[in-house]
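Example record for the data management plan.
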Amino acid sequence: MTLEKVFNIRYIRKKIQRIMRKYNTVYPIHKANPYIKMTSATKEHRVVPNLLNRNFKQGIPVKVLLADITYLPYGNNQMAYLSCIKDRSSNDILVHYVSRHITLDICNNNYRGAY
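Corresponding structural encoding:
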């Protein structure tokens, strides 16, 4: 698109790929959106009842657990996922788990190890 708009040069995609292969250059044309994978893997938009009413700090250990998944990019456009469970009363990380795939198993593995 830059060649066409700035320099008024038109090449088909295959020719650009041949030139890039010849000079060993890499340009990511389209990256997969990790949030779409996350939504489908965890069923993020499912409605659940609000049992805590935002009262997270209840003073009883292991009564309120918080879970989070963090994206960790590494290497050549690769992604790892860190899932952890935090005890809200003591603010300690109870369990963590790193995976190369965003599936529901990374949370399930944490819950088994938290108790």
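Summary line stored alongside the record: The CA atoms of residues 5 and 11 lie 12 Å apart.
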